[in-house]
Amino acid sequence: MTTDLQSAARTALACLDLTSLNDADTAADIEALCRRAQTPHGNVAAVCVWPRFVAQARETLPASIKVAAVANFPDGALDLQRALGDIAEIALAGGDEVDVVLPYRTLLADQSSDVAEFLSEVRFASRPLTLKVIIEAGELVTTDRIAQATRLALASGADFVKTSTGKSRVGATPAAAAAMLKEIKASGLSAAGFKASGGVRSVADAAGYIAQTRAALGDAALNPQRLRFGASGLLTDIESVLAGADSVATNSTY
Ligand SMILES: O=C[C@H](O)COP(=O)(O)O
Fold first, then answer.
1. Residue 250 lies in a domain
2. Is 182 a catalytic residue?
3. pTM of whole model > 0.90?
4. For residues 177 and 146, what is the distance between their CA atoms, to the nearest angstrom?
5. pLDDT at 249
6. Could you tell me if the ipTM is greater than 0.85?
7. 1: CA distance to ligand 1 center in Å?
8. GO molecular function, one example (predicted)?
9. What is the pLDDT of residue 247?
10. pLDDT block averages, 10 residues each, the chain of length 254
11. Number of domains in the chain
């Protein structure tokens, strides 16, 4: 019998961006990450790494597992040249996806046209790769700012709007997800996706975000084209649940 938690674990696995973004990451760490990306229960959607590891990950993984890398990360400065440099490095190394940090401090300073221009240049430079815009919801704090950042990301042509870098004190939260999903739905963009990231460690957490995505965007959005989980520590719990054992995660925001 498949339980609700196992069903959530299957969706979370298929939608997982298995992440390693430690400052001290080595080639051996990325080798281990790529090995973990292929499980007896199925493969993750993507690995997410620093640009310098894209070529290694792309050579190691089958084409069905995407290679994502971060740009303008994690501080989200208004530094277009750095972002474009990161994107060029990712594209040249054979990466499939770019996760770029929106200049959230610029937005908090009410300079939204500078943010829009930055995102427009990033979108232009990153095609044809998949683009995820990290709004760093934990720093934007209010629902209004989170909604505004989501609208700017969608208006630029981003494929996904992503909650967090995982480097801020506050990562993904149900409240941020609700505000973002509301804007995605309101945009009418039927291909735009949502990525929950930062502190997502348990299948119970993932199940909550899956339920929110289903409520906002429908069952058709519960696939890697519309939903991702960016997480360094979620796979252990997914594997435990899919092996028929109890959840091993101890924290949950739900
Ligand atoms: O992009 C994904 C995040 O960096 C992962 O955050 P995490 O290490 O809290 O799972």
1. no
2. no
3. yes
4. 9
5. 76
6. yes
7. 32
8. deoxyribose-phosphate aldolase activity
9. 72
10. 88 98 98 98 98 98 98 98 98 98 98 98 98 98 98 98 97 98 98 98 97 98 98 97 81 66
11. 1
237 with 203: CB under 8 angstroms?
Answer: yes
Asked whether residue 253 is assigned to any structural domain, the reply reads no
195 is catalytic: yes
The residue among 251, 250, 233 whose CA lies nearest residue 21 is 233
Pocket test for ligand 1, best of 164, 195, 209 (most atoms within 8 A of CB): 164
- Domain residues for the domain of 116 are 4-242
Q: Which residues of 197-231 are buried (b: 16+ CB within 10 A; e: fewer)?
A: bbbbbbbbbbbbbbebbbebbeeebbebebbbbbb
254 falls within a domain: no
Cα-based torsion angle of the residue sequence 70, 76, 78, 81 in order, rounded to the nearest 10 degrees: -20
Check: CB of residue 49 under 8 Å from CB of residue 29: no
The one catalytic residue among 17, 162, 205, 237: 162
| CA 182–ligand 1 middle distance (angstroms) | 23
The CATH number of residue 237's host domain is 3.20.20.70
Whether 188 maps to a domain, the answer reads yes
Q: How far is the CA of 68 from the centre of ligand 1 (A)?
A: 13
Strand partners, 16: 229
